[in-house]
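Q: Predict the assembly, please.
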Amino acid sequence: MLDARQLEAERRLIEASQRQPRRFAQLYERYFDRVYAFALTRTGERTSAEDVTAETFRQAFENLSRFEWRGVPFSAWLFRIAANAATDHLKRVAKEAALPGIVDDHDESWEARLIEVETRAGLFELVQRLPKDQQEVLVMRFGQEKSIKEIAEAIGRSAGAVKALQHRAMTSLRAWVGDEND
Amino acid sequence: MTEELKYDELNRSIDSIIAGGEFASTGDEDVDALTRLATGLRGLANPDFKARLRAELVPGSSRPAWWPFRRTTSGEDVGSRPEDQRSGGPIAPTITGLPVLSWLKGQRAFVAAGGSWGVVAGACCISGATANVLGIASAAAVSEFIQSTLPYFVALSIAGLVGWLIWFLREQGLTPTTVALTIRRHGVAMAGSYGLVFGASMGLTMAMGLY
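A: Predicted assembly structure:
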Protein backbone atom coordinates (compact mmCIF):
# COMPACT_ATOMS: atom_id res chain seq x y z
CA MET A 1 0.00 0.00 0.00
CA LEU A 2 1.19 3.49 -0.80
CA ASP A 3 1.50 5.94 2.06
CA ALA A 4 0.26 9.53 1.83
CA ARG A 5 3.61 10.85 0.59
CA GLN A 6 3.86 8.21 -2.12
CA LEU A 7 0.30 8.89 -3.20
CA GLU A 8 1.10 12.57 -3.47
CA ALA A 9 4.19 11.78 -5.56
CA GLU A 10 2.08 9.54 -7.76
CA ARG A 11 -0.54 12.27 -8.19
CA ARG A 12 2.17 14.71 -9.28
CA LEU A 13 3.61 12.20 -11.73
CA ILE A 14 0.19 11.54 -13.25
CA GLU A 15 -0.51 15.26 -13.61
CA ALA A 16 2.90 15.72 -15.20
CA SER A 17 2.15 12.86 -17.61
CA GLN A 18 -1.18 14.47 -18.50
CA ARG A 19 0.65 17.69 -19.40
CA GLN A 20 3.66 16.02 -21.03
CA PRO A 21 2.89 12.62 -22.60
CA ARG A 22 6.60 11.74 -22.55
CA ARG A 23 6.40 11.45 -18.77
CA PHE A 24 4.08 8.50 -19.27
CA ALA A 25 7.29 6.49 -19.71
CA GLN A 26 7.83 6.78 -15.97
CA LEU A 27 4.39 5.43 -15.19
CA TYR A 28 5.09 2.66 -17.65
CA GLU A 29 8.34 1.71 -15.94
CA ARG A 30 6.74 1.87 -12.54
CA TYR A 31 3.81 -0.37 -13.37
CA PHE A 32 5.00 -2.60 -16.18
CA ASP A 33 5.93 -5.58 -13.99
CA ARG A 34 2.67 -5.52 -12.08
CA VAL A 35 0.47 -5.16 -15.13
CA TYR A 36 2.40 -7.88 -16.93
CA ALA A 37 2.25 -10.15 -13.86
CA PHE A 38 -1.49 -9.53 -13.69
CA ALA A 39 -1.92 -10.33 -17.36
CA LEU A 40 0.18 -13.47 -17.03
CA THR A 41 -1.74 -14.63 -13.99
CA ARG A 42 -5.02 -13.99 -15.74
CA THR A 43 -4.17 -15.51 -19.10
CA GLY A 44 -1.56 -18.08 -18.03
CA GLU A 45 0.39 -17.69 -21.22
CA ARG A 46 3.18 -15.39 -22.40
CA THR A 47 1.84 -14.26 -25.78
CA SER A 48 -1.58 -13.49 -24.35
CA ALA A 49 0.00 -11.72 -21.40
CA GLU A 50 1.97 -9.54 -23.80
CA ASP A 51 -1.18 -8.74 -25.82
CA VAL A 52 -3.10 -7.81 -22.68
CA THR A 53 -0.21 -5.74 -21.29
CA ALA A 54 0.17 -3.87 -24.56
CA GLU A 55 -3.57 -3.21 -24.79
CA THR A 56 -3.66 -2.04 -21.16
CA PHE A 57 -0.89 0.49 -21.59
CA ARG A 58 -2.25 1.68 -24.94
CA GLN A 59 -5.64 2.36 -23.39
CA ALA A 60 -4.08 3.95 -20.32
CA PHE A 61 -1.96 6.21 -22.52
CA GLU A 62 -4.90 7.21 -24.70
CA ASN A 63 -7.22 7.87 -21.78
CA LEU A 64 -4.78 9.38 -19.33
CA SER A 65 -6.08 12.90 -19.98
CA ARG A 66 -9.49 11.75 -18.74
CA PHE A 67 -8.10 10.18 -15.59
CA GLU A 68 -9.24 12.08 -12.52
CA TRP A 69 -7.27 11.77 -9.33
CA ARG A 70 -9.48 10.64 -6.47
CA GLY A 71 -6.85 9.52 -4.02
CA VAL A 72 -6.95 5.92 -5.23
CA PRO A 73 -3.67 4.43 -6.47
CA PHE A 74 -3.16 4.64 -10.20
CA SER A 75 -2.59 0.88 -10.20
CA ALA A 76 -6.26 0.31 -9.37
CA TRP A 77 -7.25 2.12 -12.56
CA LEU A 78 -4.62 0.22 -14.55
CA PHE A 79 -5.74 -3.13 -13.15
CA ARG A 80 -9.32 -2.36 -14.09
CA ILE A 81 -8.25 -1.66 -17.66
CA ALA A 82 -6.10 -4.81 -17.61
CA ALA A 83 -8.96 -6.90 -16.26
CA ASN A 84 -11.24 -5.73 -19.07
CA ALA A 85 -8.51 -6.22 -21.64
CA ALA A 86 -7.87 -9.74 -20.35
CA THR A 87 -11.55 -10.61 -20.45
CA ASP A 88 -11.87 -9.30 -23.99
CA HIS A 89 -8.74 -11.17 -25.02
CA LEU A 90 -9.91 -14.45 -23.51
CA LYS A 91 -13.33 -14.06 -25.10
CA ARG A 92 -11.72 -13.43 -28.45
CA VAL A 93 -9.43 -16.45 -28.09
CA ALA A 94 -12.35 -18.62 -27.02
CA LYS A 95 -14.43 -17.41 -29.94
CA GLU A 96 -11.64 -18.04 -32.43
CA ALA A 97 -11.04 -21.50 -31.02
CA ALA A 98 -14.79 -22.10 -30.68
CA LEU A 99 -14.33 -22.92 -26.99
CA PRO A 100 -16.94 -20.81 -25.20
CA GLY A 101 -16.14 -22.38 -21.83
CA ILE A 102 -12.58 -21.08 -21.73
CA VAL A 103 -13.60 -17.71 -20.30
CA ASP A 104 -15.41 -19.30 -17.38
CA ASP A 105 -12.08 -20.60 -16.04
CA HIS A 106 -10.99 -17.02 -15.57
CA ASP A 107 -14.29 -15.61 -14.51
CA GLU A 108 -13.35 -15.14 -10.87
CA SER A 109 -12.95 -11.61 -9.55
CA TRP A 110 -9.59 -10.18 -10.49
CA GLU A 111 -9.26 -8.65 -7.05
CA ALA A 112 -9.11 -12.18 -5.62
CA ARG A 113 -5.94 -12.86 -7.55
CA LEU A 114 -4.14 -9.69 -6.61
CA ILE A 115 -2.00 -11.44 -3.97
CA GLU A 116 -0.77 -13.88 -6.58
CA VAL A 117 -0.11 -10.98 -8.93
CA GLU A 118 1.77 -9.00 -6.30
CA THR A 119 3.90 -12.05 -5.41
CA ARG A 120 4.78 -12.64 -9.03
CA ALA A 121 5.47 -8.97 -9.72
CA GLY A 122 7.60 -8.82 -6.58
CA LEU A 123 9.68 -11.73 -7.84
CA PHE A 124 10.07 -10.08 -11.26
CA GLU A 125 11.22 -6.90 -9.54
CA LEU A 126 13.72 -8.81 -7.41
CA VAL A 127 15.34 -10.14 -10.58
CA GLN A 128 16.28 -6.54 -11.37
CA ARG A 129 18.20 -6.30 -8.10
CA LEU A 130 20.53 -9.14 -9.07
CA PRO A 131 24.07 -8.45 -10.26
CA LYS A 132 24.00 -7.75 -13.97
CA ASP A 133 25.49 -11.05 -15.12
CA GLN A 134 23.06 -13.11 -13.03
CA GLN A 135 20.15 -10.94 -14.09
CA GLU A 136 21.10 -11.38 -17.72
CA VAL A 137 21.14 -15.14 -17.36
CA LEU A 138 17.70 -15.27 -15.71
CA VAL A 139 16.16 -12.87 -18.21
CA MET A 140 17.47 -14.89 -21.14
CA ARG A 141 16.48 -18.14 -19.48
CA PHE A 142 12.96 -17.26 -18.37
CA GLY A 143 12.15 -14.15 -20.39
CA GLN A 144 13.54 -15.32 -23.70
CA GLU A 145 13.42 -19.05 -22.98
CA LYS A 146 16.96 -19.65 -24.18
CA SER A 147 18.92 -22.77 -23.41
CA ILE A 148 22.09 -22.72 -21.33
CA LYS A 149 24.10 -23.29 -24.51
CA GLU A 150 22.49 -20.30 -26.26
CA ILE A 151 23.09 -18.08 -23.25
CA ALA A 152 26.70 -19.25 -22.99
CA GLU A 153 27.25 -18.30 -26.63
CA ALA A 154 25.52 -14.95 -26.19
CA ILE A 155 27.51 -13.82 -23.17
CA GLY A 156 30.77 -15.52 -24.08
CA ARG A 157 31.03 -17.84 -21.09
CA SER A 158 31.12 -21.59 -20.66
CA ALA A 159 27.92 -23.56 -20.10
CA GLY A 160 29.21 -24.52 -16.65
CA ALA A 161 29.72 -20.86 -15.73
CA VAL A 162 26.19 -20.01 -16.89
CA LYS A 163 24.73 -22.83 -14.81
CA ALA A 164 26.67 -21.57 -11.79
CA LEU A 165 25.37 -18.02 -12.40
CA GLN A 166 21.85 -19.37 -12.72
CA HIS A 167 22.19 -21.26 -9.44
CA ARG A 168 23.68 -18.24 -7.68
CA ALA A 169 20.90 -15.99 -8.97
CA MET A 170 18.18 -18.38 -7.81
CA THR A 171 19.87 -18.72 -4.42
CA SER A 172 19.95 -14.93 -4.00
CA LEU A 173 16.28 -14.67 -4.98
CA ARG A 174 15.40 -17.38 -2.52
CA ALA A 175 17.20 -15.54 0.27
CA TRP A 176 15.47 -12.25 -0.60
CA VAL A 177 12.05 -13.85 -0.85
CA GLY A 178 12.70 -15.48 2.52
CA ASP A 179 13.69 -12.13 4.00
CA GLU A 180 10.58 -10.45 2.63
CA ASN A 181 8.34 -13.17 4.02
CA ASP A 182 9.95 -13.06 7.48
CA MET B 1 25.52 -33.75 -3.90
CA THR B 2 28.41 -31.70 -5.32
CA GLU B 3 27.90 -28.12 -6.41
CA GLU B 4 28.20 -29.05 -10.09
CA LEU B 5 25.57 -31.76 -9.68
CA LYS B 6 23.27 -29.25 -8.02
CA TYR B 7 23.77 -26.82 -10.91
CA ASP B 8 22.88 -29.61 -13.35
CA GLU B 9 19.85 -30.76 -11.35
CA LEU B 10 18.51 -27.23 -11.07
CA ASN B 11 19.10 -26.65 -14.76
CA ARG B 12 17.19 -29.80 -15.71
CA SER B 13 14.29 -28.76 -13.47
CA ILE B 14 14.24 -25.29 -15.01
CA ASP B 15 14.28 -26.81 -18.51
CA SER B 16 11.23 -28.81 -17.53
CA ILE B 17 9.45 -25.78 -16.05
CA ILE B 18 10.12 -23.64 -19.10
CA ALA B 19 8.76 -26.43 -21.27
CA GLY B 20 5.52 -26.20 -19.30
CA GLY B 21 6.11 -29.04 -16.89
CA GLU B 22 5.06 -29.02 -13.26
CA PHE B 23 7.33 -29.09 -10.23
CA ALA B 24 8.91 -32.50 -9.63
CA SER B 25 11.10 -33.23 -6.64
CA THR B 26 14.76 -33.96 -7.33
CA GLY B 27 15.34 -35.41 -3.88
CA ASP B 28 17.56 -32.51 -2.90
CA GLU B 29 15.91 -30.04 -0.57
CA ASP B 30 17.91 -27.03 -1.77
CA VAL B 31 17.38 -27.74 -5.45
CA ASP B 32 13.67 -28.34 -4.83
CA ALA B 33 13.32 -24.99 -3.06
CA LEU B 34 15.01 -23.22 -5.97
CA THR B 35 12.87 -25.10 -8.48
CA ARG B 36 9.69 -24.03 -6.68
CA LEU B 37 10.89 -20.45 -6.91
CA ALA B 38 11.70 -20.94 -10.59
CA THR B 39 8.06 -21.79 -11.30
CA GLY B 40 7.22 -18.21 -10.27
CA LEU B 41 9.67 -16.91 -12.84
CA ARG B 42 8.08 -18.79 -15.71
CA GLY B 43 6.76 -16.17 -18.07
CA LEU B 44 9.16 -13.45 -16.90
CA ALA B 45 8.68 -10.54 -19.28
CA ASN B 46 10.88 -10.52 -22.32
CA PRO B 47 12.92 -7.28 -22.20
CA ASP B 48 12.60 -6.93 -25.98
CA PHE B 49 8.82 -6.79 -25.64
CA LYS B 50 9.03 -4.29 -22.81
CA ALA B 51 11.38 -2.02 -24.76
CA ARG B 52 9.30 -2.28 -27.96
CA LEU B 53 6.07 -1.41 -26.21
CA ARG B 54 7.67 1.52 -24.44
CA ALA B 55 9.09 2.83 -27.71
CA GLU B 56 5.70 2.41 -29.37
CA LEU B 57 3.81 4.24 -26.63
CA VAL B 58 6.28 7.03 -25.96
CA PRO B 59 8.64 7.38 -28.92
CA GLY B 60 12.08 8.61 -28.06
CA SER B 61 11.73 7.74 -24.40
CA SER B 62 14.10 4.78 -24.35
CA ARG B 63 15.76 4.64 -21.01
CA PRO B 64 19.44 5.50 -21.27
CA ALA B 65 21.97 2.79 -20.45
CA TRP B 66 23.29 4.72 -17.51
CA TRP B 67 19.95 4.93 -15.71
CA PRO B 68 20.98 4.23 -12.15
CA PHE B 69 17.93 2.97 -10.37
CA ARG B 70 17.17 -0.25 -12.10
CA ARG B 71 19.53 -2.54 -13.78
CA THR B 72 18.35 -3.50 -17.22
CA THR B 73 19.43 -6.12 -19.62
CA SER B 74 20.15 -5.19 -23.18
CA GLY B 75 17.33 -5.34 -25.65
CA GLU B 76 19.34 -7.59 -27.90
CA ASP B 77 21.56 -10.48 -27.11
CA VAL B 78 24.96 -9.01 -27.63
CA GLY B 79 27.28 -11.53 -29.17
CA SER B 80 24.54 -13.65 -30.66
CA ARG B 81 23.60 -11.34 -33.52
CA PRO B 82 24.97 -12.14 -36.96
CA GLU B 83 27.00 -8.93 -37.08
CA ASP B 84 28.60 -9.85 -33.79
CA GLN B 85 29.46 -13.28 -35.07
CA ARG B 86 31.04 -11.78 -38.18
CA SER B 87 33.04 -9.30 -36.15
CA GLY B 88 34.61 -11.90 -33.96
CA GLY B 89 31.76 -13.26 -31.88
CA PRO B 90 31.74 -12.59 -28.20
CA ILE B 91 35.00 -10.63 -28.06
CA ALA B 92 33.31 -7.23 -27.89
CA PRO B 93 31.00 -8.17 -25.04
CA THR B 94 33.94 -9.77 -23.28
CA ILE B 95 35.89 -6.52 -23.48
CA THR B 96 32.95 -4.32 -22.53
CA GLY B 97 32.15 -6.83 -19.82
CA LEU B 98 35.46 -6.12 -18.09
CA PRO B 99 34.65 -4.86 -14.60
CA VAL B 100 36.29 -1.44 -15.02
CA LEU B 101 34.76 -0.78 -18.44
CA SER B 102 31.32 -1.96 -17.52
CA TRP B 103 31.53 0.17 -14.37
CA LEU B 104 32.51 3.20 -16.45
CA LYS B 105 29.70 2.49 -18.92
CA GLY B 106 27.18 2.83 -16.14
CA GLN B 107 28.74 6.09 -14.97
CA ARG B 108 28.75 8.02 -18.24
CA ALA B 109 26.18 10.64 -17.31
CA PHE B 110 27.82 11.26 -13.97
CA VAL B 111 31.29 11.49 -15.45
CA ALA B 112 29.93 13.94 -18.03
CA ALA B 113 28.18 16.04 -15.37
CA GLY B 114 31.22 16.10 -13.09
CA GLY B 115 33.51 16.95 -16.01
CA SER B 116 31.21 19.69 -17.33
CA TRP B 117 30.96 21.42 -13.98
CA GLY B 118 34.70 20.90 -13.55
CA VAL B 119 35.11 23.00 -16.70
CA VAL B 120 32.96 25.71 -15.11
CA ALA B 121 35.10 25.60 -11.96
CA GLY B 122 38.24 25.93 -14.02
CA ALA B 123 36.80 28.45 -16.47
CA CYS B 124 38.65 31.36 -14.86
CA CYS B 125 41.95 29.47 -15.22
CA ILE B 126 41.24 28.41 -18.79
CA SER B 127 40.02 31.83 -19.90
CA GLY B 128 42.93 33.55 -18.12
CA ALA B 129 45.47 31.25 -19.74
CA THR B 130 43.85 31.77 -23.14
CA ALA B 131 43.88 35.54 -22.73
CA ASN B 132 47.53 35.40 -21.75
CA VAL B 133 48.47 33.20 -24.70
CA LEU B 134 46.63 35.54 -27.08
CA GLY B 135 48.43 38.49 -25.57
CA ILE B 136 45.23 40.12 -24.36
CA ALA B 137 46.25 40.13 -20.69
CA SER B 138 49.53 40.12 -18.83
CA ALA B 139 50.53 37.29 -16.52
CA ALA B 140 50.09 39.51 -13.48
CA ALA B 141 46.60 40.58 -14.53
CA VAL B 142 45.61 36.99 -15.22
CA SER B 143 47.02 35.86 -11.90
CA GLU B 144 45.05 38.56 -10.06
CA PHE B 145 41.91 37.70 -12.01
CA ILE B 146 42.23 34.00 -11.14
CA GLN B 147 42.90 34.65 -7.48
CA SER B 148 39.96 37.00 -7.10
CA THR B 149 37.40 35.02 -9.08
CA LEU B 150 38.34 31.39 -8.45
CA PRO B 151 36.17 30.97 -5.31
CA TYR B 152 33.13 32.25 -7.20
CA PHE B 153 33.68 29.89 -10.12
CA VAL B 154 34.13 26.97 -7.73
CA ALA B 155 31.00 27.94 -5.81
CA LEU B 156 29.05 28.31 -9.06
CA SER B 157 30.21 24.92 -10.29
CA ILE B 158 29.30 23.17 -7.03
CA ALA B 159 25.89 24.85 -7.04
CA GLY B 160 25.47 23.77 -10.66
CA LEU B 161 26.44 20.21 -9.88
CA VAL B 162 23.99 20.09 -6.99
CA GLY B 163 21.31 21.62 -9.22
CA TRP B 164 21.95 19.03 -11.90
CA LEU B 165 21.65 16.27 -9.31
CA ILE B 166 18.33 17.69 -8.10
CA TRP B 167 17.09 17.91 -11.70
CA PHE B 168 18.27 14.38 -12.35
CA LEU B 169 16.54 12.98 -9.26
CA ARG B 170 13.29 14.86 -9.74
CA GLU B 171 11.74 11.94 -11.56
CA GLN B 172 12.54 9.48 -8.82
CA GLY B 173 11.51 11.83 -6.08
CA LEU B 174 14.07 13.86 -4.22
CA THR B 175 14.35 11.88 -1.01
CA PRO B 176 17.31 11.23 1.30
CA THR B 177 17.29 7.62 0.03
CA THR B 178 17.60 8.47 -3.66
CA VAL B 179 20.24 11.12 -2.92
CA ALA B 180 22.25 8.73 -0.73
CA LEU B 181 21.93 5.93 -3.26
CA THR B 182 23.06 8.12 -6.13
CA ILE B 183 26.01 9.51 -4.23
CA ARG B 184 27.01 6.03 -3.07
CA ARG B 185 26.84 4.60 -6.57
CA HIS B 186 28.05 7.53 -8.62
CA GLY B 187 29.78 9.94 -6.25
CA VAL B 188 33.26 8.65 -7.06
CA ALA B 189 32.77 8.99 -10.83
CA MET B 190 31.20 12.43 -10.53
CA ALA B 191 33.75 13.82 -8.06
CA GLY B 192 36.59 12.12 -9.92
CA SER B 193 35.81 13.69 -13.28
CA TYR B 194 35.11 17.05 -11.64
CA GLY B 195 38.46 16.94 -9.84
CA LEU B 196 40.29 15.74 -12.91
CA VAL B 197 39.03 18.52 -15.19
CA PHE B 198 39.31 21.25 -12.57
CA GLY B 199 42.75 19.96 -11.51
CA ALA B 200 43.92 19.92 -15.12
CA SER B 201 42.89 23.55 -15.65
CA MET B 202 44.58 24.58 -12.42
CA GLY B 203 47.66 22.59 -13.38
CA LEU B 204 47.77 24.32 -16.73
CA THR B 205 47.79 27.80 -15.21
CA MET B 206 50.36 26.72 -12.62
CA ALA B 207 52.59 25.32 -15.33
CA MET B 208 52.33 28.64 -17.17
CA GLY B 209 53.23 30.48 -13.98
CA LEU B 210 49.91 32.26 -13.88
CA TYR B 211 48.77 30.99 -10.49
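Chain A touches chain B through 59 residues (CB under 8 Å). The helical segments of chain A are 4-19, 24-43, 46-63, 74-96, 114-127, 132-143, 148-155, 159-181.
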